[in-house]
Queue: 2 jobs
Job 1
Amino acid sequence: METNKPGLAIMTSGGDSAGMNPAVVCAVEYATQRGYKPYLVYDGLKGLIANSIVPASKDLVSGIMHKGGTALRSSRSPEFFDITFRTVAYQNIKSHGIEKLIVIGGDGSFRALNQFYNDFEIPFAGIPATIDNDIAGTDYCLGVDTALNVIRQSIDSIRDTASSFSRAFVVEVMGRHCGYLAVTSALSCGAEVCLVPEIEYNLDTIGARLKAEIAEGRKYIIAVVAEGTKMGEYITRYINDSIGMEARLTVLGHVQRGGSPTVHDRIMAYKFAVAAVDALDAGETNAIMTFKDGTYSHLPIEQVADAKYKLDPALLKLAAPLAC
Ligand code: F6P
């Protein structure tokens, strides 16, 4: 084991997602192996300002691997946009001898840490973690697989009532402006309809298709709608009033963010955490960990923050028939 490296702090920031805890565990273990003195920042960016920073100990990170959310807690902090508060944060981390940071979160958190780097030259490595899967440059963000399994289980249950009661169910899923969760769920759950911001949809043709299928014997309908379309209530009324099938809307909401991380999320958390420590060790100053086309790598923050995530065209092609 190497020794005598400076303090390296690990924090979670922004919306929590399953996989954050395994990433914290692994980052602490691997940073220790690489000779760093690991610290934990509680409460995200707010905790940097409030000095909620403690040396990592086995006790603090044991028994959290299987838990959803983040044991370090998280926050969104408007104060961090203010240099006065960032200066306080800098003084806090310097007082602990911390010279590097790992932030597990979304691109808003990465931008905040990049501003901090520009101000005070504290290098950071970002681990993508958001159920939205909307970070440019990476095919995967921690929490996505767990969220998809929660959605899959929910839709499977809803199908029981839909089929028993000959009803239509519109299921609204999260994702902010991104349709990844909706497209993947619609395909894997066999939905009849999928509305996402990335695919142009046509309610008239969807309606005509569904009416024809009902005439042929279809007894129930499952429609998956991305929250970014803001179409949940509208399409529920449309199916009820224009297609003539009793329809209900289920907004899955924050249940999608929770739950014990799946095996996939745990393993991805390990890979990203090792990559983050290695990137900092190699002298990277503001790199975001990525998993692209089956390969782990990292990108400078600018290439992540200034680009827009694009949903896989092959996936969109598969889902296109569900929008017309
Ligand atoms: O970014 C994760 C996410 O869960 C989005 O899918 C959703 O739009 C948003 O956060 C909800 O934010 P909040 O937890 O602040 O209501």
Job 2
Amino acid sequence: MKFTKNPLAIRIIISSVLIIMIFINEIYLHVYLSSSMGDEYNLMTSLYMFLTIITIIVLFSNVYLTYRLGLKLSKDQESIKKREERYRKLFRHTSEGLYDMDSDYKMKYYSPDWYKSIGLDINSTKIDAWTNLILDEDKEGFNERFKKRFKKQLSTDQEYYVSEYRIKDIHGEIHWIEAIGRVQFDENGDFASMSGVHRDITRNKVHEQEILQMAYYDPLTNLPNRLKITEDIKEAIELNKKFTIMYLDIDNFKYINDTYGHMFGDKVIVEVSNRLKAIVHESDIVAHVGSDEFVIISSSYINKKQIEGYVYYILNEINSQYIIENTTLKFTSSMGVAVFPEDASTLRKLMINVDIARYDAKENRNRYRFYEASMGKITAEKAKIKNALLKSIENNELYLNYQPIIDFSTKEIAGFEALARWENQELGQIYPDEFIPMAEQTGFIHQLGYFVLEEAIKFVSILFHDYKKYYKINVNVSTIQLQDEKFLDHVQEVLVKYQFPAKYLNLEITESLELENNKKMRNLLSNIRKMGVEISIDDFGTGYSSVNSLISLSVSHIKIDKTLVQQATTIQEVHKLIKGVVDFSHAMNMLVVAEGVETKGMEDIVLGLNVDYLQGYYYSKPISEEKVREFILK
Ligand code: C2E
Ligand code: CA
Ligand code: CA
């Protein structure tokens, strides 16, 4: 604060100057008049004396006021100094900067330390110099915005004013600043002053950014995640411009994971995401929305032919060879495509429809499918069933039936085949021919398989407890289950848990090329056999296998498929063929089961085949636990 700027000081100076001028004037008058006047002179002298006394009084009072003013000014300065000192002491170790604003909205004070912390010297610059460091984006309308917000704030009678902006310090570093002010009102309720702090919140901001990154981006691929792409799609819908959504999904990715390990699987995903990023148009968005699922949003093409060409190109790139960790790899992937707004006008519908198209592509073994209204019904129904299936175990909807297997020579029950049953309240009874393939597609087969295994072994252990007889239990196992590395341990665990002898467990595996070709699986089969568990090749005669090819597999039983058995009753050649298979199997130490024996007549013919076991409706359909007990007691 400067002396000359004080209004009181100016008043004192002006009055002093005036008085001195009057005084000089009086002296002049006195000298001049004393020589030219007579009697009147005395009167003038008294007047002169009077004026002189007043002048002297005013002068003295001015001197006194000046003295007081000087005293007050120095006191003010001292108090500011003290205030600064106090602030400085309080905030010496923080990057917080204090400020004071007066009722005229002008800044009156900033703490020098804060100025220093952003690279400025408060003594050598204008008081508001720091505002020049505010980033242009944040500065734009800074003043306007400030005033507007501030006024609004005042009108709501709130005591605190908060704002945020970035500044670039003289070293070029960006700081996020948060300004918090506390507003003071005078007795009339008008704005009196505001004081507060400027805080460097850069670290919080970085942290915030990290959290955002975590919430919106997939850490493996660095691509936007499902949440982010959903918001992007929402935004795109709001813009109401045509765009295409492509949902890409790697076929049988689980196989890659199971065969090469998850770390390798991750590398495949990273490689796929890199390829996608490299091949899509710059304005397109690629997101990683699930373990092996990607979404691409594109507005690069308008007409269907072009989009189709683009889709074809992307799939071609993704499905071509990869070399990862010296392993050459090739796989396929499928894509569902839907176009906004033609195929759906809302986010939810769009996502459902692109999913429908994707399922359709998968199911029909097409590489890509554009959404069509007609797909919806069938696939939606299937999707519904699939979703219900995933919850079938926890909802207690899954249970087992048992079909007796009859010993050929004694005609007694040798054991039972456990067959999964699913009854859903809404969907009714669904048959395994429908839900097992679904379980295989979704990977739910693992859960289902373990459930069936445990339930079945539990049941025959109870039968043993009740009837003191071990019945063999046949459990169906899908080849997909054999890809689970924990499969063997799990079987062992369940046997131990129920104290059930391994030799009474028989795992039925459907013949397939995979079974013959996959070395890992063959090893697994042989390890299962080493545990003492039996293995049947199921549905023999329906696929590619010849008996010869089965020799190399560690198999104990062959189950001749019911279609073949039924043909044997009418076709002489088939009868002969089966006979050959049975003889050969016996020579190779394998036992044979004939499936699908439905009548007495069929039994007679099958008996001539010299098989070891019989199974079919003629003896019993698959039945509940209760019925099994009745069957045993019969
Ligand atoms: P599968 O292993 O060949 O099971 C025998 C199927 O033939 C059963 O059908 C059974 O009800 C039926 N069947 C039995 N005797 C006769 C007969 O005399 N005549 C006729 N026409 N059919 C007969 P289901 O229970 O519908 O099972 C169908 C398929 O589902 C099974 O064929 C099996 O491949 C699969 N499956 C069932 N349960 C499971 C399971 O727990 N796990 C796995 N992976 N697959 C299962
Ligand atoms: Ca079976
Ligand atoms: Ca079968």
